Structures
1.
Amino acid sequence: MNFRLVQLRKICVLNTGQGCRNSKQQVTHMKTTNGIKKTQQLLADLQRCEFDLRAKQKLKAALKKLLAENSVRVLRSAAQEFPNDGMTLFYILAESHLALHTWPEKGLVNVDLFLCNYSRNNYHKAKSVMRELIQLLKPGKVIQHRVTRLN
C-alpha cells in the first residue's frame, strides 16, 4: 500500500493542497499516463423499498436473473445473513463487483456497483443494472452517487 501511495505522489501530491487542485484534475492527469482509463462506480441508498427484503432467496434469484439478462458474468457470490434479517450479498464479477447490504427493519438497501472498463466501456451496462435493480426493489426514495475510478 505504501508503494502505491509513493507512486501516486509522483503524479500529484495528495491531501496537501499542493499539486492538483481537485480530484477531477488528478483523474485527468492520471488518465494520460500508462493507458489508465476512467470509469464510474455507482453507489445508491434505496429507502422505503417495497420489495420484501426478508425474502432472501427471492432476492438472490432475482439478482442472479438480473445480472444474467445484462450479460454480467458472475465469477463467485457470497451471502451473509444477520440476526435482524438483514443480509450482505457480494458478487465478484468478471469485471469487478456488486455489493448489496439490506436493512429490512428500515426498508433500506445500500448498493455498490463497479464494472471496470478493462476490455470495453461497461458504463452503459452498469447504468442498466442499477436501473433494473431500482425497478426490482421499488424504493420510495433513491440517493445515488457516481465516483470516478481509474483502471
2.
Amino acid sequence: MYLLHPIIVHFAIVLLAVAVVCDFLYLLTQKKNYWQIAGILLVIGTLSAIGAVLTGSHAYEVVDIPRSARQLVRQHRNTGTSAMWLFILTSALRFGFIQFDLFQKKIKWLYYLVALISLLFLFRTGLLGGEMAYIHGVGVEKPLPQQPQKPVFE
C-alpha cells in the first residue's frame, strides 16, 4: 500500500491547489464555472489527501529511513497530517457557508483565509517530501552498482 503514496499525493497536491485557485478566481470574476469546479476538486482533493496520509503513514512504518532524514520525515508526516485536517476544515467551511448562505457576508473571508493557510501547509509538505526523496533517497530504491563493462572490439 505504501507504494501508492507517491501517486496519490500528487493527485492531492494538484487537485487541492487548483481548487483553491478556482475559488479565488471566482472571487475575482464571479464566474460560476470557477465556483463549481472548486467545489468538485476540493472534495476529490480532500479525499486524496486522506489517502495520501494513510499511505504515507504505512510507508513510515515499512520504509527504511536513514538516520539523517528521520527528523525531516517526522516533519513531513506532521505537516501532511495538518494539511489534511486543514483541508477537511476548508471543505466543511465551504459547504457550511453554502448551507447558511454565508458567502454573501463578510465572514466569507474566514473561508478564504483557511483555504490559503491549508494551501501553504500543502506546499510545505510537498517541499519536505521532495527533499526526502531527492536529497535523502527516502523511499527510493537505489540501483545496484553495475560492474564496468569491458569495451568490445570487433
3.
Amino acid sequence: MKQKYNLLLLIACFAHSAHADKVYTWVDDNGVAHFSQDKPKGVNAKQVQFVAPPPVDELPAASTVQTSNDDNKSDEMISGNWITSPSTLRKSTLILKPNRQFSYQSLNDPKNSVDLIGTWHYEEGFLQLQVNKKIVLKRGKKSESYENEPIDVQVLQLTNNKMSIMIDDQNIDLARF
C-alpha cells in the first residue's frame, strides 16, 4: 500500500500541466543541490534555463532503446540532471548520477514537497529507482522514511537532451538541464 501511495505521489509531481515562471538552483556547503521558484537570499543561485526540446513525431517502442553492457554508453546517456518540460505544472528534477545514485525533488511549493534519494539501474528501456530515503513536507511538517521501495519506469525515448518516460500509464517528458 505504501509503495502504491509513493508511486502515485511521484506521478502527481511529474504529471500536471501548466507553466512555472522561474526556477533557481544552487549547491550548499555539503554538496547538496537545491531548487526553488523563489530566489534565495545569501546564496549564489542560478536561474535554470528551460529549453523546449524539438518536436517528436512518433515515440519509438521501448525495445528500440539500445543498451550496451560492455561500454556503458546507455548509462552515460541516461545519467545527468533532468527536469520536467516547461509545460508541466509541477516542476520536478531527477538527477541520475554516474555512480548510480539518484535524487528526485519537487520544486513548486516549499511547504508541500517530496524528496526521494536512492539508487538507480537502467537496462533495455527500463529504469528502476530504488528509493532508500523519502522526505515529505506536508503543510510545512517534515517526515522521513528509510524503506527500500522500487519505482519502475519505462523509458520510451532517450536522446542526449530529452527523455520520455512512462510511469503507471502516465507519459512524462524530461529535458536535460
